[in-house]
Design goal:
Largest sheet: 4 strands, parallel
Strand content: 5-15%
Order of helices and strands: EHEHEHHEHHH
Radius of gyration: 21 Å
Distance between the termini: 33 Å
Length: 128
């Protein structure tokens, strides 16, 4: 896998033009795959099969770009665990909060009984 990392889009496009070749089948880019970036990738690495990008940026990538890549036989794949602080409350606790809320328990009571800040309970309930 070839990693191409840049600080901005302009630098990434320059690096794509220089570093990619016909032999590259799997590449990693550290930016959100936009149409102009994908055009550069496909021009300079026509045999690419997999393009990897950070999970957080994969979620922000337009459906249009994902479908266009699928049509030409290229898979866009989220890569890595993502950056940032891990969640403090596990899935079991979040499920318990949502279940109590669905049963009609007041949010202040949920907060006190589970010893979780009120604002956090609101956040966890509204989170998808």
């Amino acid at each position: 896998m070839k990693k191409i990392i840049a600080k901005n889009k302009k630098d990434l496009i320059k690096k794509l033009r220089v570093e990619l070749s016909d032999k590259d089948e799997k590449i990693y880019i550290n930016m959100r795959p936009s149409v102009d970036i994908m055009v550069e990738v496909l021009e300079h690495a026509p045999n690419v099969k997999y393009i990897l990008c950070p999970k957080s940026l994969y979620d922000l990538t337009s459906i249009r770009v994902k479908k266009a890549l699928e049509r030409v036989g290229v898979l866009l794949i989220p890569y890595g665990e993502g950056a940032g602080r891990p969640n403090k409350y596990n899935e079991e606790t979040v499920h318990k909060i949502k279940k109590m809320f669905d049963l009609g328990v007041p949010i202040k009571e949920i907060s006190k009984s589970l010893d979780i800040p009120l604002r956090t309970v609101y956040h966890l309930i509204n989170e998808e």
